[in-house]
């Protein structure tokens, strides 16, 4: 009987609870034992029944409508060290777990794949140091790993959507709708900063959905003109046609054509100095992560949870770790490590301001 554990790791994202719920229930449905690891990799490093808990069917009841992650998440520096992963391996074996599904971002999934790759040498060391028995050494020869992507940023290559991104987008749109009402009343301009790190997806989609006047994202700095002139031309045109509101959305990683970062303060200053607009700035911050997941994320997380358990049960020691994705509305399996590598290459190209390379890499598809 296989024992499958699930953990959430990295930044929390709405829909993670649906993913955990689906994994726990599918595992039980398929005749496996289901476990949760509390507090991400920290729970693996600390170990014991307080952190690695067997879960039953009822333990995840009602989780579809809970925001955040009920099993906790953390950033764990110890797991980046070999000794931390050695403890993690020992604790999983002590709990009797032989498969791990990690729901997190690229960092968490890199850690998961590294853990799987190191597993034979970790358990050898544990056995040689008498930290596990010969029976355990023989029984836990392989660790199956599978990744599901929980991230509000929608920044993972090879999948069309990450768990949490559409919920965050919905929250941003609602917040901008509220802002529109007050902006209209006072005929004001608002600069709204949204999350996304190296990825402008949240800013771009929110801009389309709320018909923002101007959007600044990391991937496409205004090239034809200085962004200040271009933004002022567009905003002036809108105002000249009687528009009483101005909304400019700034992604947290936005940069200018001269490759310098653009902050909400920079945008605010331009709107005041050049257009004399009564301007306010709103940094949406953590409200973008909070609250319940939208239906799409609940469904995505549930379908991907089912597929994650299926993938674990299909895995052999020679199968590369899978990442559960969605492509053209179908739940798919992608090679985890290649997906993570590609995601990191895109982020590195953006940081190196090589936008063409970033775009080319984003369009890369795997032939499986
Ligand atoms: P988000 O996209 O929300 O930031 P993430 O999964 O990328 O999520 P990270 O902080 O990068 O978030 O990683 C979460 C945890 O995963 C880390 O605290 C660490 O425990 C583990 N981890 C990340 N990178 C590695 C690595 N290279 N080796 C081992 N463990 C890692």
TrEMBL record:
Transmembrane segments: none annotated. Keywords: Allosteric enzyme, ATP-binding, Cytoplasm, Glycolysis, Kinase, Magnesium, Metal-binding, Nucleotide-binding, Transferase. GO terms for biological process: canonical glycolysis; fructose 1,6-bisphosphate metabolic process; fructose 6-phosphate metabolic process; intracellular chemical homeostasis. It comes from the Eukaryota. Mg(2+) binds at residue 106. The active site is at 153 (proton acceptor). Substrate binds at residues 151-153, 188, 195-197, 252, 280, 286-289. GO terms for molecular function: 6-phosphofructokinase activity; AMP binding; ATP binding; fructose-6-phosphate binding; identical protein binding; metal ion binding; monosaccharide binding. ATP binds at residues 11, 75-76, 105-108. Residues 4-312 form the Phosphofructokinase domain. One of its GO terms (cellular component) is 6-phosphofructokinase complex. It is found in: Cytoplasm. Belongs to the phosphofructokinase type A (PFKA) family. ATP-dependent PFK group I subfamily. Eukaryotic two domain clade "E" sub-subfamily. Homotetramer. Heterooctamer of 4 alpha and 4 beta chains. Catalyzes the phosphorylation of D-fructose 6-phosphate to fructose 1,6-bisphosphate by ATP, the first committing step of glycolysis. This is ATP-dependent 6-phosphofructokinase. The lineage of its organism: Eukaryota, Fungi, Dikarya, Ascomycota, Saccharomycotina. The chain holds residues 32 to 399 of 801 of the full protein.
